[in-house]
Structure formats: C-alpha cells, structure tokens
Specification:
This protein is of the alpha+beta class and 581 residues long. It has two domains: 307 residues, no CATH class; 159 residues, no CATH class. Helix content is 57%, strand content 8%. It is built from 21 helices and eleven strands. The strands form four sheets. The protein has a five-stranded mixed β-sheet, sandwiched between helices. A two-stranded antiparallel sheet has the order 1-2. Strand 3, helix 18 and strand 4 form a beta-alpha-beta unit. The longest helix is centred in the middle third of the chain and has 41 residues. It starts with 12 loop residues before the first strand and ends in a 5-residue tail after the last strand.
C-alpha cells in the first residue's frame, strides 16, 4: 500500500539521437521536493498551532487555574525553579536551591520526574515569559509539532497533503489530547520524542546508517530524561528486529555504541532518583495488575479514538503484522510504528505506574497512521482500486468527519476561585512576610501555589505551606494517610507557634473527608476571635469556593526561624528563616 513519492522516479532525458534515455535521478529535483515538503510542513504546523490555540481558548485554559491534574502544578513550579536557577547564575548547589524553593512553593517535582522537560520549559520562560499563559503556549507548540510530524509521515508515505492535514487534525481533536494540552503535563512532550525516535529507528532499519541510530539514541535518551515512561523505547529495537527479521543489525557496532552511550547518560539519573520514583507507583507489581491494565488500556483506546478508527487500525495492522511474523516482510518505518504501539501497551501493562488514558498519547500517532493504511487496504480489496494520493485524502477526510461526529468534544476547564484569591493576597501589603497555609480535600493546594508563584516578584517570595504535608502525612499518591494532630487545640497551637498568618481553605469536596481538614474547620469555629474571615471567592462548581482567614490577636509575622517537617521531599525537615520576603 505504498505510493512511491515523486522523488523516487528517474528523470528521462533525450539523447543526442533524439531517443529518450533513462538517467540517474537529478539531485536538484530531489532538493526541490525536500524544500516543498518542508514548506508544507511549516504551513501545516502553523495551521495546527492555530487550531490548538483556539481549542485551548475554547476550553478556558487561559482563564482558569492549573493544578486539577495532580501533577501539573509540580511541572509549572519546577520549571519556574529551573528558570530562576539559570537566571540567577547558578547561585548555589542544585539541591540547596531546590530545598529553598520548596520552602516557598512546596510543589517541586524534580527528582520524581527527570530534568529535560523542566530545562526546556525554563528556556522557554527565559525567552517568552514565565506566566502560566506562556507555558500553555509552549504546550500548544508541542502538540502542534506532533500533528506536523504526523503530516510529514503521511506526505512521505502517500504524498497526500489533505490526508496529512486531516490526520494531524484528528490527533488535535481527540479529547484526551486536548485535555493534556490545556494544562502543563509532560505526556505530550514525551509523545513527541517517542514519535521522532521511532521515525529515526525506522530509517536505521532500512538504511543501516550510523547517523540514524545516533539520532535514535539521542532522542531516546531525551525521552527517558523527560519522563520515566520513555524507557518504552528500549523495546523498539527487539520488537522491530523480530518483525523485520533483520538480525544482522545486531552485529552493527553503532547500535551497541549508541546503547552504551544512552545508558551512560540515563542510568545515573535513574539510579540516583529511584527512591523518589518507586513510591509513585499506584499498584503492586504482578499479573493481577497486568490483566487489569490490559483491560483498562484496551477499553480506553477504543473510547479515545472511537470504534471506526479502532477497526481501521486493526485493518491496517493485520496486513503488515501477519506477513512480518511469517516472512519478515515489512519495511523499517512500519515495523517501528508497530513497535511503538506494542511498547507503550507492554510498559503500562507491566509497570504499575497507574491507569490513565494519557499514557496512550504516545501511541496515538502510530495508531492514526495505521488507520489511514487500513482504510486504503479495505478500499483496495473491496473496490479493487489502486491506492492514490486522492484516495488517501478521501479516507482521511472521512475519518476526520467521523471523529468530529462521534468522539470530538471540548473538555472545558472550570475556575475554582484560586486565581482571584491569589490576586487578592498578592495585592494586599498586609500579607507580606506572613506564612500562608492552604488546605484542601481535593487539589486546591497546588492551584494556590502555582497562582502565587506566577505572581511573586521577586521570586521566591511568599512562604506557602500545604496542610496535607505539614498537618498530615501520606505518600506521593496520598496513600497511608495519617493526621499528625488529633484536636483543634493542637492544630491551633502549631499554627500560632510559627505563626501562620493566613489560612486559605478550599471548599471543593475531595474523594474522601480528610481529618486534618476537618480539624482546621473546627479550629476556626472554636477560635472565632483569632481567625477573621477576610473574603470568599466562589468557584464555578456549586458548593465550591475559596475562603480566606487572617490571624488576629497576635503578631502574624514570624520573627524567628522555624522548621517544618515534610515527607516525600529532598529533606524531611526544612528550616525557614525570616524575613520571608
């Protein structure tokens, strides 16, 4: 089902006797085709970026807080930290700087996640600003690059620009892609690196060129150092070599040198941070998890792309997979794309990092390309027509129409009141040099931290404490929860000893009541003369909102150093010395 691109055609020229003779392909013609493809990819990227930005706007991404995804607050704050470390000229050791930053904004995730995304985020912030809106534009750029890469692959395979635009648009319009483009998450960045690495590995399978394997190794290393899930790329070589029967590649010296280089780059970080990563696993290892995960990801792949695309994906996969398993009859690109899908599923079925549909984003570009191929295969068999670029365009446009009619919707974000609450705290000079405690049974702590961190000048500024970490203890996934206090009186004594000058309470209900949060509510009722209600900022969700209370009856500003005990960070005890700001 491959339509040979025009670059592969020889140019025939008349000889001296007027007879047309075959000749060697013109290098200039090939260059013109490359230039045309590059121009089309740039135009496609601009269109995809515009569409992504409009989808973000429609989802209210730029008008609402980040933090509802549990990890996005950490990704934004950690990027701010790396930006500050670079902008200040590397003022201390990275660990000391991170500890100090965590004391102010306790949502630093470096260590639990690798550094590449944060370095890229920091460089973006240095060039285009460090606001939340600026980073959301970066997320739009990443998603548009994935769509543009899909466009490029469709152009190389079928020379069908409309099919490329439609296939890239399908990726953009999938709700799971929209959801994680409208907040600060690393999954789309990982998906981009996985796709680029797969393209390079496919080229190496077909060409054996050292530069292709070197590019693959570099991109695979970047993927692993973007998110631990990038280790799925380790599975690409063995799966694809089995599919293509090109076992001679195992004797290629460049392959093993590249593998050694990638291991030299990635293994030290993985070993150094393993104590941060493994507590984040949400399930125990074992076959029971593998069976549950296989069912989960199978169902969510179906619901993510829809029944029709799933069937076409299988229709495109089977004609390539069956001959490959029998004879090795498959080219490098398709073998690499098959391997990506298998690698993503195998990793997340056996590594118990959690069950979430966002893990499928790295496999979706390959799935879409197989769906286009499946559509062409079915038409070829049923209608007995040879595949052409126009036929590829028609198939892709039909699939886009089906996606818009069945799967597409815009997952709109809601405001929880923290943006206005943070603006109120930042603009009131009364709260400067005061410790702020935020408590929530849901995800409000991260929302307040990101909004305050985005506003602070200079940074770090305010000291914000997370009630879920200083009044209670739990692991990274909030398991093994235990309140550190048993009475409102004990909580009051702890807060006034620091002292905490401002309480920010999120009224959004979480999955279950938390004892420390209930103790805070009771403390406010039991000490009405000590905690003055300052303001309430409503949320879009009924019954939710943000309450702000201020400590009265004593000086709310700390005048001596104090320590807080925090689990799951670089140290269990962090010392904070006034003046805070």
């Amino acid at each position: 089902m491959i339509i040979r691109p025009a670059a592969a055609l020889h140019v025939a020229e008349p000889g001296v006797d007027g007879v047309i003779q075959p000749s060697v392909p013109r290098r200039a013609s090939f260059s013109r085709i490359q230039a045309r493809t590059l121009v089309l990819c740039c135009i496609a990227f601009a269109l995809f970026f515009s569409a992504t930005f409009l989808l973000q706007q429609s989802a209210h991404a730029y008008r609402t807080e980040i933090g509802a995804e549990f990890d996005d607050a950490s990704h934004y704050v950690t990027g701010l930290m790396v930006r500050g470390y670079i902008a200040q000229g590397f003022p201390s050791s990275p660990t000391a700087f991170a500890q100090s930053y965590y004391a102010h904004y306790p949502k630093v995730g470096l260590g639990h996640w690798p550094p590449v995304f944060y370095v890229a985020e920091a460089l973006w912030m240095l060039m285009f600003g460090d606001s939340i809106a600026s980073v959301l534009v970066l997320m739009a750029v990443i998603t548009a690059l994935i769509a543009a890469t899909i466009f490029y692959l469709v152009m190389e395979e079928w020379q069908a620009p409309l099919a490329g635009l439609a296939c890239g648009a399908i990726f953009l319009f999938l709700p799971v892609v929209q959801q994680y483009t409208s907040t600060v998450m690393v999954d789309t960045g990982l998906a981009l690196l996985v796709l680029w690495a797969a393209v390079r590995w496919g080229r190496f399978l077909d060409s054996g060129r050292a530069r292709d394997i070197i590019w693959f190794g570099a991109l695979a290393s970047l993927a692993v150092l973007t998110k631990g899930d990038g280790v799925e790329l380790i599975l690409l070589p063995p799966i694809s070599i089995i599919l293509t029967r090109r076992f001679a590649i195992l004797r290629n010296r460049a392959l093993w040198l590249t593998a050694a280089g990638s291991g030299f780059v990635c293994l030290p970080w993985m070993l150094l941070t393993r104590q941060f990563v493994t507590p984040g696993f949400q399930y125990p290892w074992g076959l029971a998890y593998a069976a549950r995960a296989a069912q989960f990801f199978g169902i969510h792949l179906l619901t993510t792309i829809g029944l029709v695309l799933t069937l076409l994906f299988l229709a495109g996969l089977a004609p390539k997979l069956v001959p490959a398993l029998r004879f090795g009859g498959i080219n490098g690109r398709w073998a690499s794309l098959i391997s990506v899908v298998f690698a993503v599923l195998i990793l997340h079925c056996f590594v118990p990092s959690g069950l979430n549909d966002r893990y499928l984003i790295a496999a979706i570009p390959a799935v879409l390309l197989f769906a286009i191929s499946g559509g062409l295969t079915l038409i070829t068999v049923v209608a007995r027509r040879n595949p052409t670029p126009r036929l590829a365009d028609a198939v892709a446009l039909v699939l886009l129409t089906l996606i818009l009619a069945t799967v597409f919707y815009i997952p709109r974000k809601q405001s929880y009141g923290f943006r206005k609450a943070a603006a109120s705290l930042e603009n009131n000079p009364l709260y400067r040099n005061q410790v702020i405690l935020c408590a929530s049974e849901a995800f409000g702590e991260g929302m307040l931290i990101t909004e305050m961190a985005a506003r602070d000048r200079p940074r770090p500024g305010h000291v914000i404490l997370r009630a879920g970490r200083v009044l209670a203890s739990s692991d990274w996934n909030n398991r093994h929860y235990r309140s550190r206090f048993s009475s409102p009186q004990a909580v009051m004594a702890y807060l006034t000893a620091i002292p905490v000058g401002v309480l920010v309470l999120d009224r959004t209900r979480g999955p279950q009541p938390l004892e420390h949060y209930q103790l805070l509510r009771r403390m406010i009722r039991d000490y009405p003369n000590s905690w003055e209600h300052v303001a309430t900022f409503p949320a879009e969700r009924p019954g939710a909102g943000v309450d702000i209370y201020h400590l009265t009856g004593q000086d709310p500003v700390p005048h001596r150093p104090f320590e807080i005990e925090v689990q799951g960070t670089y140290r269990n005890t962090i010392r904070i010395a006034p003046p805070i700001r």
